[in-house]
Amino acid sequence: MTANLLRTKLLDAYEHAGAPIATIYVPTRSDTENAEQRLEIHRDNIERSLREAGATEAMTALVKANLAELDHASGAAHVIVSTDEAIIMSASLERPLNEARTWLESTPMLVPLIGATQADYVHVAALIDRSGADVMLRSGVQAPLDTIEVDGPYKRLHRSAPGGWSQKRFQQTAENAWELNAREVIDAIISDYPDVDLIICGGDERAVGFFTSHLPERIEAVVVAGSRHADADAFLDEADVALRDIAATEQVAVLDNFRTALGADNAVKGSDVIDMLVQGRVSDLLVVDNSMSAAEPPMIDFDFASSTRSGDQPVNAPLAETAVALAVGSGATVHVVADTSDTSDGIAAILRF
Does the residue 116 lie in any domain? Predict the structure, then answer.
């Protein structure tokens, strides 16, 4: 399934690993008392934290200017990633944060956010009835990015009960109309959103049945409760549950695959993962989000310039974030998993061969 743009941007940020990088999470909620005053306090605290951590004047100035542009209109929180030379990512988040966090490391500190966005697949949410559908393009557990309304040419045809020998003929005519309307909804979705491979749909049971039966095989369909003539927010809540269920199922599957691969001597965990990543042998990287742990994260001396653990100018970097940076560079898939005994020092990997 297609990952959303934010997750892609998060992973792209790791391409800058090696030099000092600031990662800042800042709440920007507008539904709290004295919201603007709170945001101003966050700005001052973040600037002070950067200076205390040893950030250069150039980096501090870049972050300060970016923070000055923030308001409450674009999301519940914001994440900023900056080097000395440029802001490499500045993105609004739909999920609220309880507190501002600032890091200055040799890698971005984005594993918590990568984990939080694992359920955010680009998808279409479609509320369907016998005359058409309300179609919403979404990038995950958040508001629709785009909405279209599709009404088929046969929307005035309803099943009737005239009685006598003609009843079956009238019934079949109505059924044919509903099916044609469902096909028109599919054509509109494919035309407007050709890359979407996941549709979450709900609505009239008969219309949804026609709709799912005619979808191309490449598109996965998930049916949830909903009605085109009721509150769409309730349907989107059901869609969000479905997205989280998909992500949970995939996490179980990747852990099962890892255990099988480990038994076949085709998986590693702990610091050995770094060596396999350097060799380009990792297919799937498993990383634990330990951001809420009071313990200091495992660190590693690594030379990003030469991609080796024993280069001329190694830097001390967080182990998990270093692994993600190497996974991005080698094309491995990143999975943030629950803290289990399957990992060592918070990382594990399935090998390519």
Answer: no
